[in-house]
Amino acid sequence: xHLTDLAWPRVDAMSRDIPVIVPVAAMxxxxxHLPLFTDSMLLREVVRRVSGTLGxxxxxxxxxxxxxxxxxxxxxxxxxxxxxxxxxxxxxxxENLLQHGFKRLVFLNGHGGNEVPGRQAVFELRQRHRQxxxxxxxxxxxxSLGTGSGPAADLGTEQTEMGHACEWETSMILRLAPHLVAPxxxxxxxxxxxxxQPASRGWTTRDRxxxxxxxxxxxxxxxxxxxxxxxxxxxxxxxLERVITWxxxxxxx
Length: 253
Hints:
Rossmann fold; alpha/beta; 4-stranded parallel beta sheet; globular; 253 residues
């Protein structure tokens, strides 16, 4: 069920236990071969599949297309909300929904750069409402909701984790909008490397990749894209089922 399709009395009549999902993505460079809107396009398709399965048991807001993409600003076309601005934006959206009485809020994320401010936003939100015992405030990235570290071997991908304009994303855009994919078969891979792990290193995309991609876009296929979409939609649906069936009190979900 989509908030954009409803008049306010219909929203007012809803149970406040219904989960509200806020999809958040980005508008940023994706190498020489993928469109700037890649993250938003991919998350929008995952949401389309998930919302079709969940029907009226979950409420989806419009996708927030601007994200925290400062690390991509060396590449023209990238639009970014700086980290603090982005954090405040997420907090503000959540406060709107809480004011309307909703209690189960999920930011469903489609861009890696949103993860740190997104987690901080739900942390700050919980501290402001620390006396309440009925809130469930979550930030979740769609490709990280499975039980394993990456797609199963039978999906046929070489990569085991999300990169950037990589085998996964290129495959999914090939499945979704092949006319927007520039020739990629001869693009050299850019490995993720080991940036002083397990420490967390501050970085810009230029530190890691001159062309802008990270991963192996030359391995992408339409078939892999469909299998990835199926996997991610199934995992996101299973995750949101847990939110729907939460008992409204317990720590475990």
